[in-house]
Amino acid sequence: MTIRVAVAGATGKMGKLALRLIEEAPDLELHAALGRETPLSAIDGADVAFDVTHPAASADIVRHSLSIGVPIVVGTSGWSAPRISEIEAFRRELGEGAPAVLFVPNFSIGSVLGTAFAALAAKFFDSIEIVEAHHAGKVDSPSGTAVRTAELMTAARGERGPVAAPHADQRARGQLVGGIPIHSLRLSGVVAEQRVVLGGDGETLTIAHSTVSPSSYEAGILLALRRAPEAEGVTVGLDALLDLGISSDR
After folding, report:
1. Using CB atoms within 10 A as the burial measure, which of 15, 168, 173, 238 is most buried?
2. Catalytic residue among 138, 167, 183, 209
3. Does pLDDT of 247 surpass 60?
4. Which of these is catalytic: 31, 64, 134, 183?
5. CA Rg, the chain, in Å?
6. Are residues 205 and 225 in the same domain?
7. pLDDT tens, 90-105?
8. Residue 135, annotated as binding a ligand
């Protein structure tokens, strides 16, 4: 079976990467390549949509795709838990049989593993901070990967409760997500990096991941596109497709 894919954000770096992967894959076919001026109706008739656009545009693309019955893989950053909850509510309004949404903050297998390790370690440390760095052109901060990591670590702590939060006057300690400070760097020469630093009595643990080439995203993109047509509900994170035990399948 050939999967017809509509790519929104086709002129960007991730969009161009997706176009190449679709062209090379024997089981994928390009249905439409959407740029900034392309009407959303170009998605109509696709088997799956792939959204790698801009945080301000992504919600309309997701809602349109769901409303016409096309499952969608969302690689656009900036999708926090509250925004995802709004999409869940929208799907419920559409009723039974609404297509699936796969929110993937990061398509890198190594990054997903780093987040999984951080969630595992979060249960044992009360001091936790995240430092993430991306290329200078990335418009959102903190990154979707960092937000996802903080949310999973907070959930993993369970009854242990929140981490030691910064003092109210320590504004340089970063944006709090689930009580965990996230520091964002936007620098030329960087692709993507994340360090989770956990502090305990007499020790620190650092879980770090660096993306040195966009090729690290290829396996994750292909996996998500191939799984989306048969998926159900709202799924957050590539880990849900890798069976790592930390999925947020909704």
Report:
1. 238
2. 138
3. no
4. 134
5. 18
6. no
7. 999 999 899 999 999 8
8. yes
Q: What is the pLDDT of residue 249?
A: 46
To the question of whether residue 75 is assigned a binding role by annotation, the answer is: yes
Task: Please indicate, yes or no, whether residues 41 and 135 belong to a single structural domain of this protein.
Answer: no
* pLDDT level of residue 166 (50, 70, 90 thresholds): confident
Which amino acid is present at 32? A
Does the annotation list 137 as a binding residue?
Answer: no
76 and 12 within one domain: yes
Summarize pLDDT for 50-93 with one digit per residue, the tens. 999 999 999 999 999 999 999 999 999 888 889 999 999 999 99
What does each C-alpha distance from 194 to 70, 108, 148, 155, 231 come to in angstroms? 33, 12, 12, 19, 29
The model's confidence at residue 246, banded by pLDDT at 50, 70 and 90, is low
Q: Is the pLDDT of residue 189 over 60?
A: yes
Domain hosting 188: range is: 109-212
Tokens coding 110: 């190594």
Active site residue 138: yes
Q: Is 16 an active-site residue? A: no
CATH number, domain containing residue 230? 3.40.50.720
Do 52 and 139 have their domain in common? no
Place of tokens 């991941």: 209
Do residues 242 and 112 make contact, with C-beta atoms less than 8 angstroms apart? yes
144 assigned binding-site residue: yes
Contact present, 34 and 75 (Cβ < 8 Å): no
Provide the number of structural domains found in the chain: 2
97 labeled binding residue? no
